[in-house]
Amino acid sequence: MPLWTLLIGCVVGAVLGSFLNMVIYRLPRGISFVNPSSSICPTCKAHLGWVDLVPLFSWLSTGGKCRYCKAPVAARYFLVEVLTGALFAGAWYAYQIQSDRMGHLWFVWAMLACLVAVVFIDWELYIIPDELNAVILLVGLASSAYSGKLVEGAFGALTGWGIMFFISFVLGRLILQKDALGDGDIKLMRGVGAMLGPLLTPVSVVIGVFAGLVIGVALMVLARRPAAETENEGDAEPIPPPESLGSYLKRGVWYLLCLDIVAIPFPKLYRLIGEESPALETIDDDWEPSPTAIPFGPYLAIGAVVCLLGAQPITELVQNYFFPTPRP
Predict the structure, then answer these.
(1) pTM
(2) Are the beta carbons of 28 and 129 closer than 8 angstroms?
(3) Which of 59, 91, 214, 240 is the residue whose CA sits 20 to 30 A from 174?
């Protein structure tokens, strides 16, 4: 494909980004996708027409405000459309301009869309919905099956689960003596691993950890408040103790067997491990994390995106480093 066809990726990504904005808002809050069937303003609840939903231009034309009540519309809506358009264009370049893999491109686009949703949901609410992680796993396995590498995809899922579960155990249990990673991060890399395979999955995690260290620490420094504004130690909420080791291991096996996905339509299955379904948890939009809290999902998503868009050169680099071809 010629270079100008990058516009196709941009347009498709921006249009899908408009839909992703609805997913990002409704999915974690348990709001139906069919009721209301059309997009609405979160402030005045006015139903939005097509003129309000043109990707990029609608937000710019109103100056980032609702056309009806003039309430500010978060810049997130514009950023999601820009980011999705840029990522889809990057995937088009890698899978249509540099190579001809149109079939695989659809799976890459689907995974990129899911990762964009992960970034913005986890960044705002510090959760990754089970439904989203289920879609990520299904896309990953479907992509591997399409490429004739379903077994490799299964090993990739096992690799992603194993790395994150090991990090959570060593860093959280043995070193920090607290819950260091969210369960959503373990389930996320299980699905990403199903698409990347066992070779690229560790690379993706390393990139994510590096991005988390650099960006996360920088944001923590910027968010540090003056001493006069810091709450007294006596007013701070106590840190809850970590869950028991038995419960921790039980949940790890639960995720390994993908029973969390089976439990989405059958939430009562969680009683088998003595827990309540995450679907019963409520989202508090007024909740604010501590300045030292860092959502890890967005950084894992960054690593996954890098490996998806640069799969071929990164694979060659890793193979040449660990399995160099002997010189004659």
Answers:
(1) 0.88
(2) yes
(3) 214
